[in-house]
Design goal:
Helix content: 55-70%
CATH class: Mainly Alpha
Distance between the termini: 64 Å
Strand content: 5-15%
Largest sheet: 2 strands, antiparallel
Number of helices: 5
CATH topology: Hypothetical Protein Ta1238, Chain: A
CATH superfamily: Cobalamin adenosyltransferase-like
Number of domains: 1
Radius of gyration: 19 Å
Shape: elongated
CATH architecture: Up-down Bundle
Length: 192
């Protein structure tokens, strides 16, 4: 259980931060960048939850809330380099759950005939912001995994990849099942 009595410690005033294994690294270290971007994605999900509640989409709000817990798990996973000590790690079942949800929510959507622009309803727009943040987190984790392959759980990349796909599908659901999607019109603003 986490217990925080003080919010500031001043230990990071020198530009370093502590990892889950007790080591200290610079705040711009790839590992810190990776779990920091996961935190940004989680924050974007928080806004999408508010939009889902405002739109009367309680099921989507609840689903996104459960994903927020996974993202804290993922941040904890990234915060401690993989070693032989047992720590909280993203597991295959969490990735599999996202795949099932993607299939479930995508089943009733019409196939796409063009790329979708972020927008439509407030909920869809919020989900697209969260999707973009998840993609950024994925890119940061990929960079970390390339730099420290033995110290990074490969399931973190898979989870973020599936999450961004799920958020895209949910945005289409929030846009009246895709009927209110804003489709890209290539070259729409080119001079005649």
């Amino acid at each position: 259980m986490v217990k925080l009595n003080r919010i500031y410690t001043k230990t990071g005033d020198d530009g370093t931060t502590g990892l889950g294994d007790g080591s200290r690294v610079r705040k711009d270290h790839l590992r810190v960048e990776a779990y920091g971007q996961v935190d940004s994605a989680n924050s974007a999900l928080g806004l999408a939850i508010v939009a889902a509640k405002d739109a009367g989409q309680a099921a989507i709000a609840d689903l996104l809330g459960s994903i927020q817990h996974d993202l804290f798990d993922l941040g904890a996973d990234l915060c401690a380099p993989v070693d032989d000590k047992q720590r909280l790690r993203i597991e295959q079942g969490q990735v599999d759950r996202l795949e099932r949800l993607i299939d479930e929510y995508n089943a009733d959507l019409d196939p796409l005939t063009s790329f979708v622009l972020p927008g439509g309803t407030a909920l869809a727009a919020g989900l697209h912001v969260a999707r973009a943040a998840a993609r950024e987190a994925e890119r940061r984790v990929v960079a970390l995994a390339l730099d420290e392959p033995e110290a990074t759980n490969p399931l973190t990349v898979q989870y973020l990849n599936r999450l961004s796909d799920l958020l895209f599908v949910l945005a289409r659901v929030a846009n009246d099942g895709g009927k209110a999607d804003i489709l890209w019109k290539p070259g729409a603003n080119r001079a005649e």
